[in-house]
Amino acid sequence: MPLSEALAYNVDHLDSAAEHWTKVADHRESTYADVRNRAHGLDWTGDGADAMHDHVDWDFQKAKFSAEDLRDAAGIARSSAGDLHSLHRRLRDNLDDVRNDGFVVGEDYTVLNDRPTRSLDEHLARQQQAVEHTADLRFKATELTDADARVGARLQTATAGEGKIQFTDFKADGGPVCDDPDYEDGIARRIAAATIGGGMAGAAVGIPGGPPAMIVGGVGTAFAGFLGEIALEIAGDGPKCE
User: Fold this and answer.
1) I need a surface site. Which of 14, 158, 183, 225 has the fewest CB within 10 A?
2) Which domains does the chain possess?
3) DSSP conformation letters of the chain
């Protein structure tokens, strides 16, 4: 990390990421919980209803697990922000001390004496101090750089599943729900459309040094339409399983 980067370094991106991931996690979990609760609240029984319940329960568990991963990432970001800020403060304080003592610091942390000396001994002493200051500043800069890289790696691991959540066509017994094609294909298809097509909007929000985060879109609206269709079928004596 060159001197200019060290001077501009801050942890604002980690604070912002922690806040964003927490909001996404809360919204994702509450949205799928609402879909699950509304599905289970329908006045509808039978194999078709059981299949729908299996779908929404399974999708909610996946959403819940992914939300927990995001909260873990947010916790890493928050705690790491404090640690990195302390390391940066140490480097800045050391840099201020060196400059205040009459030395100049280059982009690669090379320290040179900038104060006139009155004797050879004083000149040599100042040179030795410059060498020591150079080593100390480079150590602290490397310490900050390495810590920052470790935090980035931890966040990459914690959010590795983001953007890869799959909501598959799930059947409890692995086979047909019933012989009626509307239950076998239509309901499963509409559940999938409501929970997948209307749900995960791939809007990525990036942070410096970190992975993107997914934002849940209109799953509630899409599923509301699906529930409305089912309600009409029930009221109209729609297709039944034999």
Assistant:
1) 225
2) 3-235 (1.20.1270)
3) --HHHHHH---HHHHHHHHHHHHHHHHHHHHHHHHHHHHHTSS--SHHHHHHHHHHHHHHHHHHHHHHHHHHHHHHHHHHHHHHHHHHHHHHHHHHHHHHTTEEE-TT--EEE-S--SSHHHHHHHHHHHHHHHHHHHHHHHHHHHHHHHHHHHHHHHTTTTT--------TTSS-S-S-HIIIIIIHHHHHIIIIITTEEEEEE--TTS--EEEE-SHHHHHHHHHHHHHHHHHTT-----
